[in-house]
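Try this one yourself first.
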C-alpha cells in the first residue's frame, strides 16, 4: 500500500506522528528524524542526519545504547527501552531492530514516548463532562 503514496505524503504522515522518531542504519548512522514541532530533545531532525547514534544521547546512557546496538546486530534482541534519566521520570526511549525478510539487520527505529503528555490527556479527560 505504501507504493500508492508519494514521498511528500509519506513524509507528512511521519512528521504528523505525535512522538519523536529516528531511523538509524546498520552502520549506526542517523538517516532520518521526523520534524515534530514539540521535540523533547535539543537535536533538530535536519541536524541529526549523518551523525552517529551515540552522539545523539547523553554520555550517561551511551553504554546502554551500545549494548542495544550490539544485541540487535547479534540477533540477541529485537526490542529495548530505557527511561531517560534527569529529563523527567516519564520519558521512555524505545528501540526496535529493523530486519529484512531473511532476518538481516537493517538498522533501528528509535522513538521517544512522553508519558507526561499522555498523563495530562488522561487528567483532562477525567475532568471532561461525561456523556
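Now uncover the answer:
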Amino acid at each position: 500500500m505504501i507504493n500508492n503514496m508519494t514521498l511528500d505524503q509519506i513524509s507528512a504522515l511521519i512528521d504528523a506522528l505525535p512522538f519523536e522518531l529516528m531511523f538509524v542504519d546498520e552502520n549506526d548512522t542517523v538517516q532520518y528524524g521526523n520534524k515534530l514541532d514539540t521535540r523533547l530533545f535539543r537535536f533538530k531532525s535536519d541536524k541529526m542526519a549523518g551523525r552517529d547514534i551515540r552522539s545523539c544521547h547523553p554520555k550517561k546512557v551511551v553504554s546502554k545504547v551500545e549494548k542495544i546496538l550490539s544485541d540487535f546486530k547479534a540477533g540477541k534482541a529485537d526490542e529495548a527501552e530505557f527511561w531517560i534519566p534527569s529529563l523527567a521520570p516519564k520519558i521512555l526511549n524505545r528501540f526496535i531492530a529493523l530486519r529484512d525478510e531473511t532476518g538481516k539487520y537493517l538498522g533501528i527505529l528509535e522513538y521517544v514516548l512522553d508519558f507526561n503528555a499522555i498523563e495530562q490527556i488522561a487528567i483532562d479527560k477525567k475532568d471532561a463532562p461525561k456523556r
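Discussion: DSSP finds four helices and five strands in the chain. The chain has a mean pLDDT of 84.
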